C-alpha cells in the first residue's frame, strides 16, 4: 500500500485551470466595456462637434442673410438716388445711372455672389446667392380670375414642363405635361383620389364650413378663405404630391456630369402678393374694468397702448397700398427656358437666344473692364503724374463705357425686340400680335427674392487636385422688398431654414473650385 502523501500541486491543478478561465473571462468583459465606453465617448464627441458645427453654420448663415438683405435694401435706396456712391462703377453717368436705378438686372450688386460673400479665412466659407423670384413664372396664374389670362398661363406652364428637361432621362413629353396639369387641377379642386383621400388639409387651406363643423375653434368669417380657394398650392413642394413629378423635376439633378435645374428655378408662388388689412376682431376685453378709466381719457397704460395701436395702424395703412407686379416676369433676369415657355410658337427660339446673348453683353463688358483695370494698375497707370489732361481723357473713356454697358439693360419690355434687332442687325420674323402677347408678361423690376446660403468647410478630393464641397449645409429664406412711404421695407415670407440643394461647386453661378476638366464647365441655360 502506497502511503506517499499527495502534493498540494496535484490537488489544486484543476482549480488553477478554472482560475485561468475566469481571469480570461473577466479580461474579455473589461475589454468589451472599455471598447463600449470608448465608442460612446467618441459618439458623444462627434455629436458635440456636429452640434457646434451646426450652430456655427446657422449663425454664419444668419449673418449672411443680413448682409444680403442690406444689399437689397441699399439697391432700392439707390433707385431714389442714382448718383449714390454704391452705384455700379460702370453706370454712374446720368443716363446710364437712371436706367440702372429704375430696373433690376445683372448690373445690380445683389446679383454678384462674389461681392456678397465675405472672406472667412481658412475656416468655413460662405456662398450667397440672391435668386430673383420675379424672374420666374407664377404657378398660381393658372387659377387667376380672368379666364383668358388663366388659359394663357396654363399653356405657359404646360410648355415649360415640356421643354424644361428635354435631352435628359427625365424629359417630359407634351402629353406628360398635359396629364400633370390635369392632375394639378384636380388637386386644387379637392379631387385627390386614391391614397390622397386620407391626407389632412392644413387649417390655412380649410373653408369656413369645415371650420364650423369641426368646432375646434371659432374664427371670424372675414378671416377665412373661400371654399373654392382652399386647395391652391401654398408652395412648390406640393408638386411632389402630383403623380408624374419626381424630386429631380422639382429640385434639379446631375446627369452626365451636368446639372439640370429643376422647376423651382422656373416656377414660383411668391411673385403676386398683396398686403391686406388685418381682420376686424371683437375685443374680448372690452367689458373688462381695466379697459375703463385711464384708457378712456387717454392717460395711463391704456393711453400708451392706444398710441402704440394707432402707430401700428398707420404703418399698416402705409403698407396696404403696396403690391407686387401681378406675377409679371422680369425680362432682365428671366432664364432662357422661361422665355421659351412664355413665347408663342410664332417667335423663333433663335430670337429668344439673341435676347439672352444681348443680356450677356453685360458680363462680357464687366469682365473686359476688370481685365483692363488690372493691366492698367500693373503698368503703373492712374493720374499720379498730376496731368489734368490725362485725367480728362480717362473720364471720357469711362463715360463711354458707362453708356455702352447700360444699353444692355431693358428699361421697358416694349423695347426688347427693337434693341435686339439693332444690336445684331437682324429682323425677328414674328408678327406684331405675337410680340405684344410676349412682352405683356414682363416687367423690368423685382420685389421678391430668395436668398440661398451655402456654409461649408473647404476640402479636396482624394488626389488633392480639386476642391470639393466638404462638410456643408444649405440655407434659404424668401423676402419681399417693398417701397415704404418713408423708407424701404423688407418682409420675411419664409424664415431662414436649412434645405437640400443638389448642386455641386461647379454648378454654382460663381465657380468656387479649381477644375481643369472642361467638361465640368458646361452648364445648361
Question: Can you give a write-up of this model?
Answer:
- Helices cover 43% and strands 11% of the residues.
- By secondary structure, it is an alpha+beta fold.
- The chain has a domain at 63-132 and 343-379 and 394-448 and 456-521.
- Helix 4 crosses helix 5 (174-189).
- The relative contact order is 0.13.
- The model is unreliable at 211-225, 291-303, 383-392, 394-402 and 513-525 (pLDDT under 50).
Low-confidence stretches: 211-225, 291-303, 383-392, 394-402, 513-525
Strand content: 5-15%
- What is the rounded Rg? 32 Å
- The share of residues in helices is 40-55%
From the spread of the alpha carbons, the general shape counts as globular
Q: Between the first and last Cα atoms, what is the distance in angstroms?
A: 108 Å
Total DSSP E strands: 12
What is the typical, i.e. mean, pLDDT?
A: 76
**Would you list the SSEs in sequence order as H and E?**
HHHEEHHHHEEEHHEHHHHHEEEEEE
Number of helices: 14
Structural class assignment? alpha+beta
Adjacency order of strands in the biggest sheet: 1-8-11-12
Q: What does the largest sheet look like?
A: 4 strands, antiparallel
- Tell me which oligomeric state these chains represent: single chain
Amino acid at each position: 500500500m502506497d502511503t506517499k502523501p499527495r502534493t498540494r500541486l496535484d490537488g489544486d491543478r484543476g482549480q488553477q485551470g478554472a482560475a485561468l478561465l475566469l481571469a480570461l473571462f473577466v479580461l474579455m468583459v473589461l475589454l468589451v466595456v472599455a471598447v463600449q465606453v470608448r465608442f460612446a465617448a467618441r459618439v458623444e464627441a462627434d455629436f458635440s462637434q456636429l452640434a457646434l458645427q451646426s450652430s456655427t453654420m446657422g449663425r454664419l448663415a444668419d449673418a449672411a442673410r443680413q448682409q444680403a438683405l442690406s444689399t437689397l435694401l441699399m439697391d432700392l435706396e439707390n433707385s431714389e438716388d442714382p448718383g449714390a456712391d454704391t452705384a455700379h462703377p460702370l453706370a454712374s453717368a446720368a443716363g446710364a445711372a437712371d436706367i440702372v436705378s429704375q430696373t433690376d438686372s445683372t448690373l445690380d450688386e445683389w446679383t454678384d455672389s462674389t461681392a456678397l460673400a465675405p472672406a472667412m479665412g481658412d475656416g468655413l466659407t460662405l456662398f450667397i446667392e440672391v435668386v430673383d423670384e420675379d424672374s420666374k413664372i407664377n404657378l398660381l396664374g393658372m387659377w387667376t380670375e380672368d379666364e383668358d389670362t388663366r388659359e394663357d398661363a396654363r399653356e405657359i406652364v404646360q410648355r415649360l414642363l415640356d421643354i424644361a428637361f428635354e435631352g435628359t432621362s427625365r424629359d417630359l413629353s407634351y402629353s406628360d405635361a398635359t396629364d400633370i396639369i390635369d392632375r394639378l387641377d384636380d388637386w386644387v379642386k379637392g379631387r385627390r383620389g386614391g391614397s390622397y383621400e386620407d391626407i389632412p388639409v392644413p387649417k390655412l387651406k380649410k373653408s369656413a364650413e369645415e371650420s364650423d363643423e369641426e368646432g375646434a375653434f371659432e374664427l371670424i368669417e372675414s378671416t377665412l378663405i373661400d371654399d373654392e380657394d382652399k386647395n391652391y398650392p401654398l408652395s412648390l413642394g406640393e408638386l411632389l404630391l402630383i403623380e408624374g413629378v419626381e424630386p429631380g423635376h422639382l429640385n434639379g439633378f446631375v446627369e452626365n456630369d451636368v446639372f439640370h435645374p429643376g422647376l423651382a428655378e422656373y416656377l414660383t408662388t411668391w411673385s403676386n402678393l398683396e398686403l391686406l388689412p388685418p381682420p376686424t376682431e371683437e375685443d374680448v376685453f372690452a367689458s373688462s374694468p381695466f379697459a375703463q378709466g385711464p384708457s378712456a381719457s387717454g392717460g395711463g397704460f391704456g393711453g400708451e397702448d392706444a398710441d402704440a395701436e394707432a402707430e401700428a395702424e398707420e404703418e399698416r395703412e402705409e403698407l396696404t397700398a403696396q403690391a407686387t407686379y401681378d406675377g409679371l416676369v422680369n425680362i432682365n433676369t428671366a432664364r432662357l427656358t422661361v422665355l421659351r415657355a412664355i413665347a408663342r410658337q410664332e417667335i423663333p427660339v433663335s430670337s429668344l437666344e439673341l435676347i439672352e446673348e444681348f443680356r450677356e453683353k453685360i458680363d462680357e463688358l464687366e469682365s473686359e473692364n476688370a481685365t483692363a483695370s488690372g493691366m492698367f494698375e500693373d503698368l503703373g497707370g492712374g493720374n499720379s503724374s498730376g496731368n489734368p489732361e490725362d485725367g480728362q481723357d480717362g473720364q471720357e473713356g469711362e463715360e463711354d463705357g458707362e453708356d455702352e454697358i447700360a444699353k444692355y439693360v431693358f428699361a421697358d419690355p416694349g423695347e426688347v425686340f427693337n434693341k435686339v434687332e439693332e444690336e445684331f442687325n437682324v429682323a425677328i420674323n414674328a408678327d406684331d400680335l405675337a410680340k405684344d402677347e410676349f412682352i405683356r408678361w414682363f416687367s423690368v423690376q423685382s420685389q421678391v427674392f430668395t436668398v440661398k446660403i451655402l456654409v461649408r468647410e473647404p476640402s479636396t478630393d482624394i488626389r488633392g487636385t480639386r476642391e470639393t464641397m466638404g462638410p456643408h449645409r444649405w440655407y434659404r429664406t424668401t423676402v419681399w422688398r417693398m417701397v415704404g412711404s418713408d423708407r424701404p421695407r423688407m418682409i420675411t415670407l419664409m424664415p431662414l431654414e436649412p434645405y437640400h440643394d443638389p448642386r455641386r461647386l461647379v454648378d454654382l453661378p460663381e465657380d468656387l473650385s479649381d477644375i481643369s476638366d472642361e467638361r465640368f464647365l458646361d452648364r445648361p441655360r
